[in-house]
Amino acid sequence: MTRTVSASVLSSVLALAPAPGWCAASLERYTLVIGANSGGANRPQLLYAVSDAERFARVMIELGGVAPPNEIVLKQPKLHDLIVALDTLTRRVADARKRTPPVGRTEVILYYSGHADEQGLLLGDDRYSYRTLRDRLDQIPADVRIAVLDACSSGAFTRVKGGRARPPFMIDEAADMRGHAFLTSSAETEAAQESDRIRASYFTHYLISGFRGAADVSGDGKVTLNEAYQFAFNETLGRTVDTKGGAQHPSYDISLSGTGDVVMTDVRQTTATLVLGEDLEGRFFVRTASQELVVELYKPRGRLVELAVEPGIYEVRVEREKGSVTARAEVVDGARVAIDPRQFGPVAMEPTRRRGDSTRYAVAGRNRIEMRLGSWRVHGPPVPVHAVTSPGATVFFGEIVDLQGDSAASAFGGFAYTRFVRENLAATVAVDGVGVSSDASASGKTLWTG
Q1: Beta bridge partners of 283
Q2: Using CA atoms, how far apart are residues 205 and 187, in angstroms rounded to an integer?
Q3: Are residues 60 and 165 both part of a single domain?
Q4: Of 22, 80, 202, 258, which has the most beta carbons under 10 Å away?
Q5: The overall pTM is greater than 0.90
Q6: Do residues 93 and 119 share a domain?
């Protein structure tokens, strides 16, 4: 089941070029991760905003180069909590830049999942405006600032900045990179959707799948900001085009120059890797033993995909046009496990029951016995003939319309047996009799018993 939420997804990214002399070996990254299911009394409660934030925080620790002391996670915060966290983040980055020897490059990643409107983020009954958030990001003395917002009314944010719906952007690895990039995953008039199937918002789900290696198109073991966004863009649009909420069209306002692209995750940092070989093809769903969907992607034949996962047992399911197959893999700490095509077998059909238990009223395989009795009088108005049936059977009615003679009364009787072969097919055997007294007669062609 897919639930449509009266929200739009906003994913904005602001990247400022690093100072000269930056050294990759001395990179230090900080994160502020916020999840809020509640957007006030007049808005529906979100189901997966907090869990989306938890997953984002976890992947940044595992693969994003963030040390646990450098991460701040807020769950269902109040406005005051957000302000304090931003002040703390600013102070930590400023202290890092004063160290001796100094840090070569600092990066800040802010992630928000929850409600928002055309003016700003909604934390309960409070609002934190987009303009204030932009100003606070500018005050953080980091070389690179990245903000990913999975919230409402994203199109309003890019509209203020002059953004419009576009295909995924491309950044030349050899070009100079400076400036900023504001990214959104839906237009101003589009609704965002949470899915019970993936138990997440579409955009965050695919963004994190990309971080774990699904977006590593180059195969170098690193997922750049550009690769992650393109993967999330294509998957979100493709998987929402047929939903009730309608397709979500990412847009952006971007002004970048500099050298290279920002590396978001390095899948080689993990100690457990699940490998999908070049000869595998289809849409892959990777779930833990507890059925948590950790990665979803479409993999074409000829591409090798390495997925960074936590040690554990995984179910790998592949959906194709002709059906689905599944395999089981155990990935231990320090292992690199490749899935072989011969490991896949047919998917066992899951037993289900219709909601509302509609089969309770099905008639296929049932029997019905009817007893019909009736009487009438001559030269009067037609007398209805009633059918007496077993419980649950249909009641039949009829009339005698062509009687002759002057008898006072006559009688009618009969029975019928019905066997329901299937829902739309039944076989019936019936025996009927008519008794007429005192010189009255009845024409059989006018007798209808239902």
Answers
A1: 298, 319
A2: 19
A3: yes
A4: 202
A5: no
A6: yes
